[in-house]
């Protein structure tokens, strides 16, 4: 345990930030899994597009808050878009 007052404060701040980051990461992982599951189970294209839009929003928010890097968010969005495009092309 820290002996210095400022070190004690840093421990408290780190704990709060870790919980906030964990929450944001869990959110975008769950949304991504939901989208991939919708593709796997061959959901309606409207539902898939809606989930893709939600995924973009959640990833952008995580990047904005600094939970993930903006390039990582961009890469994840590109990969999800490619999966959705491949799925929609297979339907037609």
UniProtKB/TrEMBL annotation:
GO terms for molecular function: small ribosomal subunit rRNA binding; structural constituent of ribosome. Signal peptide: none annotated. Keywords: Ribonucleoprotein, Ribosomal protein, RNA-binding, rRNA-binding. GO terms for cellular component: cytosol; small ribosomal subunit. Binds directly to 16S ribosomal RNA. Belongs to the bacterial ribosomal protein bS20 family. This is Small ribosomal subunit protein bS20. It comes from Kosmotoga arenicorallina S304.
